């Protein structure tokens, strides 16, 4: 490593301590040089070591460091998390806290910044302070994770949490799709879910793939396909959205199935009401699905004039 | 995700162009690879979505039920569809529906060569549903827009350029270039008839 590269690193470290310590850039360069060139330590590790030395001298904690980077992580926007197992820093607001489903998890929920939202998990054994809903934090040293195409961040023992005075605004990461509803897939209509704690799997012939034969709980759902002639969007409508879309509520669906001694009549009835119509749907994405938060039937008059003028002119 | 086969988009096309789409092909040698018809404006179609007026249904089967449905677009051109025992939902809709009615149809293009060597293009419906006039009107405008985009792309393409879209080049080879003008006319015709209907409706 050249002298000028070392000097760049040294200047950055110097800046981090300029308020607390009377140190001289040359001194920092010398320490880095010893580690990197004499002991062949990688520069990132050398920086860590030198920073630690100065932290000790100043009697400071790592997370008190201003400027520069606290531990060599990149600060990322939550929408930019696109790979697992990366150490990053985020500045985000706690949008929602969910009920942890296992003792190993202290807190779980949703973090958001200007670019969108991301799930977070905080382990019990990490022994970190509690996050509060609605507050904004700088979280340093969190690890990214991925499950079925969805990314999350995990807080761990080395994570530092600093509450921010400023409120970080949470951006909207929902997407909009419109088109004709061209298909209602199997697993739609009146379904049964596994009643076991932590399990909401949809039963197949009365069986849960995890818990075997169980007494299921009824639910309404539609897995539909919106198609605008250029691309398809798979949409999941939950109980409320399904009722709004079809006018069929859970109780009514149960009665329909009871009368017919068959649950499939519900999906058949729903098909007749919504298939082939145009809709606009908004909501967040989950894997390859859009989860419908808002929906409207597109029935308004459409304007043909503009296209007609274009068609006549070519 | 690479592991999930992507669902084929349902193309929007007026009956005149659809019925001219006699050239079919596959993208791979796999037996189960999807079959596409080539739209004369230069786009492949493995599925179509259409909304029009169901004017006639008839059981044309000999041993078992085999329903034919005729659905007419605003230019008066007809889509033909056939549903038998393997399309039970669509077949029962054709059995039960009373023409005339607006219907929305999702289906797969199928071609059939007659004894005279002509290729007939029809639809094997996946679903048929009864819809209202607003849905039909929206489909007409949407289909006009999509068709016009294809016509425009076709007209602007340089067939000598190897970078030209492969389906446009394919259409240039397989179909008569002059027919492109017909599809522009079907866009104009469909929109004009829609405007006439709307003018009549507001005059009433």
Automatic annotation (TrEMBL), chain A:
Q: Which CDD domains match?
A: SoSSB_OBF (cd04491)
| Highest taxon of the lineage | Archaea
> What GO molecular function annotation could you give as one example from this UniProt entry?
DNA binding
Entry keywords, A to Z: DNA-binding
A GO BP entry: double-strand break repair via homologous recombination
Q: Which residues cross the membrane?
A: none
Output this protein's name.
Replication factor A
This protein's species is Haloarcula hispanica
UniProtKB/TrEMBL annotation, chain B:
Q: Which domain of life is it from?
A: Archaea
**Per its record, how is this protein called by name?**
Uncharacterized protein
Q: Which organism is it from?
A: Haloarcula quadrata
Taxonomic path: Archaea, Methanobacteriati, Methanobacteriota, Stenosarchaea group, Halobacteria
